[in-house]
Specification:
By secondary structure, this protein is of the alpha+beta class. It is about 25% helix and about 10% strand. The protein has helices at about 45-55, 70-75, 100-105, 150-160, 190-200, 210-215; strands spanning about 130-135, 140-145, 170-175, 205-210. Strand 2 (about 140-145), helix 4 (about 150-160) and strand 3 (about 170-175) form a beta-alpha-beta unit.
């Protein structure tokens, strides 16, 4: 199933003033913005049939200009990840007393400037993310078992953004988290996509991330 027909989008969980919020569909549409972004979904009776079906999907990609260095990404004329965020800047955030801080630096006997390069951080849970969705078309209730650190947040965001179901008709159950380290707090496209598939098919749908998908 490609993007057409799947409603909603991935919501932003933490908002800041004047933050640029681009549209992010559950499946990439027109443009793929990072390695590992989903472009299609396959539902099958077993994982072997699903993998065979995946091999039949042929996606034609047109390479686009990109820049991986964060400092160069904010320079004028750099390729944009999202058109809604000029210079690839999502937000600028200041806190504290700027005048007092500037005065303290001006009166300091010595000042030091230091550039730090931080390595990429990828939370790696003990067990990869997994979810099972079951939809009752008669009552209109969705039950979702998933490895989440924050089931109430998942229910809220799926109701508001990705699925559009009333919150009281979504039940999220977290039987075992399997470790998280923060990576299982926010709402990802995967659990919304399988929920939508269960709603369309009228039968339970299960999804299990691979270790490679966890690291992408």
């Amino acid at each position: 199933m490609a993007q057409s027909g799947i409603p909603g989008q991935v919501p932003v969980g933490w908002l800041l003033p004047d933050m640029k919020i681009p549209t992010r569909p559950l499946l990439a549409k027109d443009r793929v913005r990072y390695v590992g972004e989903a472009v299609a979904v396959v539902v099958a009776e077993d994982r072997y049939t699903a993998h065979d079906a995946l091999e039949l999907i042929d996606v034609e990609y047109e390479p686009l200009s990109a820049v991986a260095n964060p400092a160069k990404a904010v320079e004028e004329g750099a390729p944009l990840v999202h058109d809604e965020a000029p210079n690839n800047i999502a937000f600028e955030w200041e806190i504290g007393d700027k005048e007092a801080t500037d005065q303290a630096f001006a009166n300091a006997a010595h000042t030091v400037s230091l550039n730090l390069v931080n390595n990429r951080l990828i939370p790696n849970a003990v067990e990869p993310r997994a979810a099972l969705a079951d939809y009752d078309p008669i009552s209109g209730h969705l039950t979702l078992w998933m490895t989440t650190q924050n089931p109430h947040i998942h229910r809220l965001l799926m109701s508001l953004a990705s699925l559009g179901l009333p919150e009281h008709k979504i039940r999220v159950i977290a039987p075992e988290v399997g470790g998280g380290f923060g990576s299982k707090i926010h709402h990802y496209p995967d659990e919304a996509i399988i929920s939508w598939c269960a709603m369309q098919l009228g039968r339970p749908v299960k999804w299990q991330a691979t270790r490679l998908e966890t690291l992408s």
